[in-house]
Amino acid sequence: MQNHRTPTLLESLIPIVLLIFLLSLNVMLFDDTLEGSNQIALMIAAAVAAVTGSRLGYSWQEIRKKMVETIDSAMPSIIILLLIGALSGTWLLSGVIPTLISYGLDILHPKIFLFAAVLISMLVSLATGSSWSTIATIGVALLGIGSAMGIDKPVVAGAIISGAYFGDKISPLSDTTNLASAVAGTGLFTHIRYMLYTTVPSITLTLILFLIIGFTYDFSPVENDIQSVQSAISEVFNISPWLLLVPAFLIWVIIKKMPPIPAMTVGITLGLIFAILFQPDIIYSLSEGSNNYFKASYIAGMKSVYGNISIPSDNPAIKDLFTSGGMAGMLPTIWLILSAMIFGGVMQATGMLQRITRALLSIAKSDASLITSTAFSSIFFNFTASDQYISIVVPGEMFREAYKKQGLKPEVLSRTLEDAGTVTSVLIPWNTGGATQARVLGVDTVNYLPYAFFNLISPLMTILFAYFNIKIRRYKQQKKHPAN
Description:
Blueprint: H1 9-29, H2 37-55, H3 60-94, H4 96-107, H5 110-128, H6 131-148, H7 153-170, H8 175-184, H9 188-216, H10 222-236, H11 245-255, H12 260-278, H13 280-285, H14 293-306, E1 309-310, H15 316-321, E2 323-324, H16 331-349, H17 352-362, H18 367-384, H19 388-406, H20 410-422, H21 432-441, H22 445-448, H23 453-467, H24 475-480
Antiparallel strand pairs: 1-2
């Protein structure tokens, strides 16, 4: 059996420091870092980590095995990402997204739109348990409504993401909610109830901030803009309340616990069917001159699933709002995810991630420092391993015994994992969460990050509660209150 030397903290930090340097350089030198520069930075950092690993006694076969395992763990996300691209295209072709935007412009007042966008995203994600599904469906429509109102896209994206990740964190249907409670060893509903102590203040502050932005935003030309957008939509699309059946049915099947991949496939199929029924003019316009409706439907439908489509219109607002890249538009994001998984796999295989986490654990002497170290570890794993599941599982396993020794109940650990792990994945451009939502919404992660208030506040809230000793459950309290 091959002997492995434990990496020093300095050796473990070298690939991380190099990655940060390269990513910072990319931001300064490239307009769109998602097109390839960030992917190459991750691969260079992975190569440096692999060379360091070989000096530690790890064979290439061991490193490669872990790389393959981490890539395999990301495959469901990659498949869902492709399906989201197809869903976006078919819902555009069918007129579902234009219908949601048109009706939304009638219902939502500009000043309360951001507040309402958070609430709507909260309710949908709470019902479905999925931030990704919420953002890819209702989120895309809300982004179109906000853009038509003249609100900057990063601000709207921040509101959508804040609401979507609230539901992802709290819903009993959410995979991360179930995962965090299982890893920490506490009951699901005990975990959810305990999370409310930090989550309710975080989402309340978020809603207040978006209300303030809404009432101070300059909407002077918005009424004319809204009317022109609605007129342009109605000129191009057949708008009908029947089209609302498509998102309603998709939300229903997700609530009924249909797995995400089959549910997305149902949404894509319905989008194609409703496109054929309601949008013959658009189908003909995208069919390369075919006069046969069956042939035209096949060509337009196929394009909407796999590639770039842009609905023809003389109105520039429509051109900006109604374009889709389909599955092909998701390929740079998939490349980024694969590169991030390679880097994370090498760092795990060589023990460097674990070494950095142990360094954090060694300084955790008090309750507050232990909780803070856990939060930073989850964020660190989101940053390096690029996957929110790893940011929950690995710190959860590594800190569980420390929480027991400290006399802290397991729900303290599970809440910290969610407050810092689940919600921060979307704030990191090369993480599966950040890369996906940036591509789906068409807004770079660094641009929407300052407005994803809920995701920024949540880890700070859990640390604040720890240092002020607010609602920190200990085993000695269990003896006094058996019901807890």
